[in-house]
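Entry 14. Two folds queued back to back today. First construct below, sequence then structure tokens.
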Amino acid sequence: MQLSIPLAFLGLIETALLLAAWLAAAHLVAGEDPWSRAVYFTAVMLLSLFALGMFIARQRARFGGILVRIVTAVGLGTFAVAGLFWLMPHQELDFMELAAAALFAFAGLGISRTVYRRVAESALFKRRVLVYGAGIMAESLSHLRRRTDRAGFEIVGFVRPEDQLCVVDNSRIIAPHARLAQTCRQLKIDEIVIAMDDRRRAFPLDEMLECRLDGREVTELVTFLERETGRVRVDVLNPSWMIFANGFRRNRFRLAVTRLFDICASLVILVCALPVMLLTAIAIKLEDGPRAPVFYLSTRVGKRGKPFKLIKFRSMRVDACEERRPRWAQPGDPRITRVGALIRKLRIDELPQVVNVLRGQMSCVGPRPEQPEFVVSLEESIPYYAQRHCVKPGITGWAQICYGYGATDEDAQEKLQYDLYYIKNNSFMFDVSILLQTVEVVLFGKGAR
């Protein structure tokens, strides 16, 4: 994952604000030993903010949504701090001190996020980008509609190579009157993005080398889009980039760490969620009768295309589960039961998949497994779709956090781009980050259907 400098500064500022919130509350109620409590409070609150997606560079929520997330994060953090102090015998909890700290924290976080939005959207933290190319590849940069995809840079203009197609608006074309390096100096360019349709002709090798030695970044279009959007764009992707790009590493140590992490995380989830799972099983029986099955076994495609049986709580009618031809779930799908609608919204129906993880068929984090019938169709229509099966599928994943429920081939292609990003950049800390951010998906029902 790429480090966002503005978010790193924001994290430091909010760490100081949270420490100050507890110290101010301790001073107000004359609490003892405020520093150790302040550290516990700050650590838990930061974790809660992270889990609610407050440190994601591509956070798409508007200001009202940000305030809701702050309220939720502070509320969850307050309960977590109370539970932590209750488990620690040497820490006596003063509820007035905790309540005052939570109020101060909410006020401080609200102010810091308001200031951050104004600063982050200004030109102060945006890199000035010059695009070398004006054809179809370069035009793809004009199709970045999401505000978060364009938050980190500003396109100063496009340079059209000689004898190459131009589809970019002529008003955005820059015709250098001197060497490219001189033009970059005049325009204060930070980065050059190579977006030529045909790099075999008219590639200015000497000029690009001069720009690179002049201290400017020179980046391929696919790499640039990957960094800025958090996905690998398959419409501009070529196999050589996947072969030579950094990432896609899975050595034995990494696989062993992943497996250990999956086992530990699954056992923790199983123990913590067991009461919820028992209540869900009872609710399914009460709605559909004592003979109705609680679980639903569905054939899915796993690592290297190997099929396995996915375990879920049954959320559809029994006769719907017996349909021979699978189809995507749609909004208001009549096949979904009342209990099924609730457990789908809260993602409770996914909990039995920890058994698949313990069996080694899945990981906690990875691309979502699809049914074989869908896979055959999608591999024929979407390039590079088969490559998502080079890793184990997961209960949650980068695509689930960044994109909603997919019910069309177009949705499948969008999610594939996030899956390829995860496969390329997978790491232990990335997995932990995704698991924490899944809390936001569950609490706000993102992508549920």
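Second construct, same run, same settings:
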Amino acid sequence: MVRKVYKTGGFEDLAGYARGVRIDQLIAVSATAATDESGQARFPGDVYAQTKAAFEQALAAVEALGGDLGGVLRTRMYLVVGCEWTRAVEAHRELFGDVSPANTTFYVAGFIPEGVLVEVELDAVVSA
């Protein structure tokens, strides 16, 4: 078994987890929000921009671990109640439309970083 870990620091180090983990050909990316280096929400009030940026950060972890967009097999979106879910799924469709991964979208009570409207997760497989 080969295990690789991708970390970006900050809250990951504080909480003892990795942004992404690859074991053999499988990659799992932790919940990711559109935050800056100081942990502040980017794009306040804009669920579309936050969703797109969060998935771009998650895909950067996949790429750092040797995967790519075509290997994404499952995505999850966690949205705060009251945000425009249609804007979040629009961003998802634009990024993943050709791949069509399995997806689950949830409403949640909220997130630790103030102003975050969405967090995303994804799983991918690396081609042999």
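Quick look at the second one. Strands lie at 3-6, 20-23, 26-33, 72-80, 102-108, 118-125. The radius of gyration is 14 Å.
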